[in-house]
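Entry:
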Amino acid sequence: MGRKRKNSQDNWMPPRTYRGRSAYEFKPIAGGAIRLCGFDATAAQVWTAYENLINNRKDESIFEGLVGKFFNSTDFFELAVETQRDYRKYSQKVLAVFGQMSPDAIKPEHIRKYMDRRGLKSRTQANREKAFISRVFRWGYERGLVKMNPSKGVKQFKESARTRYITHQEYDALYSIAPPIVQIAMELAYLCCARQADILEMKKSQLIEEGILIQQSKTGVAQIKGWSDRLHAAINNAGKLPLNAGMSSIFVLHQTGGSRYTRDGFNSRWLKTKHEAKARFPDLDFDFTFHDLKAKGISDLKGNIYDKQSISGHKNASQTARYDRKIPIVPVVGSD
């Protein structure tokens, strides 16, 4: 039972629980208020809500607690949805190592050791996870929750820019054996130079008279991808995706129940399609990623790098240059 209250009728309440404007609230020592339940709840229900909160609440004195506070912060929710998902994914590996440590006990040498071991499997992922750690510590440092950012000054691994260009033959071969959902996604990624996240989130309301309105989840740039016969055909095929009886969907790419495809759900179909293509076409190489389809689209666009930048939606030409992967054909000595 909590301590005696000014109002004796509230003595039944759990510790640090008070009547808010419209509900019973728990007030953490660090400040703020967390809603437990409405005023129509019984005392037993208030205590149940309190116990559930306490049992599920992260220990704020350890790094796992700091990450939890960051995930509940305004800064986190202002990030692009795709970035939020990536950060939650990165946190799983990071918390397995640092989760139970005090944030101030984590030193640069610990980050370095983590990266060296993680880099044995994937240097790219090691860099991404280090960036996540840095973001959490920077957020905490600005709010007086930690004394320093231990990842500052820790060198990242050098990354080589991807140069993989998907040939027309490879694209056509994969497309020929892909299920409709993968075929449509391939066409949208290639024709619109779009990211997977923007394709899976695409709603039918984005299909307007001029084309497809896409606001990139990563850059925030909004564009209308003008209609072409091939793009029309892809959207028409999307309209034929099966739905269970009585169901409808707001999404262009949808499951039979009407819901959107998750990244993992779609990727399982994408990887299965590549595996089948490898067996069907052993002379071709399918070692490319779905994101490489965007690079193929940009590479196949007509015009100079600035023309391609305006179409791709990148904020600067250097970003576009990383996606322009088609090897140029140049004249040889003595050619006319």
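Residues 63-142 form one domain.
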